[in-house]
Amino acid sequence: MRVSTRGEYGVRAMFDLALNYGNGPIPLKAVAKRQLVSETYLEQLLGALRRAGLVSSTRGAQGGYELAHPPERITVGQIIRVLEGPITPLDCLDTDSGSGPYCGQPDQCVLRGLWKNLQDSMERVLDNTTLEDLRSKAIRLGVAQGQ
Amino acid sequence: MRVSTRGEYGVRAMFDLALNYGNGPIPLKAVAKRQLVSETYLEQLLGALRRAGLVSSTRGAQGGYELAHPPERITVGQIIRVLEGPITPLDCLDTDSGSGPYCGQPDQCVLRGLWKNLQDSMERVLDNTTLEDLRSKAIRLGVAQGQ
DNA sequence: TCATTTCCGACTAGATTCGTCGGGATTCAA
DNA sequence: TTGAATCCCGACGAATCTAGTCGGAAATGA
Ligand code: FES
Ligand code: FES
What value does the mean pLDDT take over residues B112-136? Predict the structure, then answer.
């Protein structure tokens, strides 16, 4: 039941970009340094986030990454889904992912409801937390590290 | 964000034992067959659940496993913790597990609250679902397979 | 005694995670 | 026009985790 470092670091990076939103592109190097993540690893993650349309990039000198949308329009759930796939405790809940909607139970699956509850409750938290929520909290705490 | 097969099968097995609660020890073989889980693998899981005090076992012929407590006193959260460890999206939330309460952030960690919310919401579901909840649902649906 | 059943530890193949590495393409600025 | 900054891409690799298997010992009831 863990979130992988892809998800963890990805959220950190997006949070960093949210703090710096509106200041033009921020180089990967700066994000990596502030968020204590390896540059080369973060590059992978931001690449995926770019292909998913959550960040935009500018190449060349003075280039970097920035959020593709305002912080209040990007949720943590979106970030996690890009970096880790569907948010679901069990593949069988995710009808889009091939393995049919049911496990091998003879009749209806009694346990399905349990796992669905778990999924819903995870998604509720992650989809209702936006980068703006995190940004404003950082400002309130006085730990906004942007510039 | 997945539950492993240990957790999944473990809950299935405990659910099966709940359906058969009060009928004396149920052999592993019967549980494995009904729940479509490999016998040798399930043996590992039930061993851990026994050592954790959630099931009791009777050795020898006519032996088997049974719940150590009535179904309403065992939660899915307990089962998952035995088989997968603490329910937490990030190790840093779990103060008992060595790696200190904080990630490497300079000041307070703004993101911690997010992950804590996620953890709370997962635990709320898993700790509030008892085996009795699952058992009564199975009976209501008419899919109780015990005997 | 013998079939049944739990108990235990060791072992393994495969998948996944968590990165690293090398080099190419693009852009700005001097 | 050159060079530094920066993103882009794919391949590679070590370590860890997952999902089991296997062989045999011990206990128990018939
Ligand atoms: S349908 Fe998913 S566990 Fe049964
Ligand atoms: S304290 Fe856990 S992510 Fe910062």
Answer: 97
Distance from the B86 Cα atom to the nearest Cα atom in chain A, whole angstroms? 9
Does the CB of B89 have a partner CB in chain A at under 8 Å? yes
Q: Judge whether A51 lies within some domain.
A: yes
B70 conformational bin, left if phi > 0, alpha if psi -120 to 50, beta if neither: beta
* Location of structure tokens 């911690």: B112
Ligand nearest the Cα atom of residue B88: 2
Ligand 1 atom showing the smallest separation from residue A90 Cα: 2
Residues B13-43: b if buried by 16+ CB within 10 A, e if exposed:
bbbbbbbbbeeebbebeebbebbebeeeebe
Which residue would you say has higher pLDDT here, A92 or A102? A92
Mean pLDDT, chain B, rounded, equals: 92
- Report the number of distinct structural domains present in chain A: 1
Domain of residue A119, CATH code: 1.10.10.10
| Interface mutation vs chain B, best among A1, A94, A136, most B CBs within 10 Å | A1
* Amino acid type, A43: E
CB B99 less than 6 A from any atom of ligand 2: no
Q: Average of pLDDT values for A3-9?
A: 98
Look up the domain containing A121 and give its range: 5-141
Closest among A26, A29, A8 to B109, alpha carbons compared: A8
Residue B146 inside a domain? The answer is: no
CB contact under 8 A, B143 and A3: no
Per-residue model confidence as pLDDT tens digits over B49-104: 999 999 999 999 999 999 999 999 999 999 999 999 999 999 989 866 555 556 76
The confidence score (pLDDT) of residue A147 equals 42
